[in-house]
Amino acid sequence: MTRARSWGLPVLGVTAAIALWWAGTAVFGIRSFFLPSPPDIVAAFRQQPDYLLRETGATLTATVTGFAIAVVTGLLLAVVLTAWRALERATLPVLVALNSVPKVAVAPLLVVWLGFGARPKIVLVVLICFFPVVVATMAGLTSTPAELGELSRSLSASFWQAYVKIRLPWAMPQVFVGLKVAISLAVIGAVVAEISNPTGGLGSVIVLSGMSFDTPLAFAAIALLAVLSTTLFYLVVALERWLVPWARAISG
Predict the structure, then answer these.
(1) What is the pLDDT of residue 235?
(2) Superfamily of structural domain 36-251
(3) Is the pLDDT of residue 6 over 70?
(4) What percent of the chain has pLDDT over 90?
(5) What is the spatial distance between Cα 116 and Cα 109, in angstroms, rounded to a whole number?
(6) Cα–Cα distances in Å, from 160 out to 38, 80, 167, 169, 202?
(7) Contact 244, 176 (CB under 8 A)
């Protein structure tokens, strides 16, 4: 019953939202040019499925590649900063300042610096995902209870033994908080880059369909982005439940 409720309630909520949307467009007679109904979006997808799926693949590639780079570099930097506090105090203000720069403003500059293609899109995904991973990992690594530190010292554990056996496992739930935030931002970063550099991806579909006043096609791309973002988020959730099963038991 618990499993059925956990899956059934989200499906029910999504179904109700789509039904209200459909009913609203029908009752108020809204033209598809302004707000297409769900059948209009499905029809737009069925007209160009190969094109939309190909652009979905391009967005997925940029998103996953940038996210993976951000995770690896963010985790490594967080480990270094928490192990060397002087470096943390010197570096963290710089990271905060860089993160405060609006990524929308950086996207056109990346095209100038890196040219057209996939590279500026991947770099923007890295920039938008990097900071949440670093902050969440640092928060997890610095939240180890004092009694566990005393236990490791009483067992004559070395610094790295205590780090690997105690601090990293304790930090994993917090790390996955950062990963879940970052994977959602990764799709946003990829779309922002594709809108600024419309050479491929679902962001370019939205730009080009807007220029041709094909609103149903734009909404079809938006719907695919929603499905892509939700799927990636729950893949990270599934990975968390596999690697950190005790976190769910503690939170429950």
Answers:
(1) 95
(2) MetI-like (1.10.3720.10)
(3) no
(4) 45
(5) 11
(6) 55, 12, 9, 13, 44
(7) yes
